[in-house]
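Can anyone check this?
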Amino acid sequence: MTLPASWSVIAERTPADSSYVLLSGEVLVRAAGRDVATLGAGSLFGETGLLGKQLRTATVTTLTRVRLLAIPYGELEQLLGAQPHLADALLADYRRRSAATST
């Protein structure tokens, strides 16, 4: 999908149903009212709801026009089951980001 600048892709504290791969452009990640990260092409976001089995933990807003690949959670779960090394990498990244946002 293609979205314009200033578009909210994910809203904090809402149910999670998909994760996203950022194909082009930049997004801003905000959690608990503060800027957490700026992500660029190649970044995966929105998987925290699946890994943490919780509501969305951040709001993600486009800074520029972006192109995204949406991955519904059912498909992501299948991919992680088929590729255990990917699951390990996502879990390590999830833990790193969780630690960074709690400080």
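Reply from J.R.: I decoded it. The helical segments are 48-52, 73-82, 84-101.
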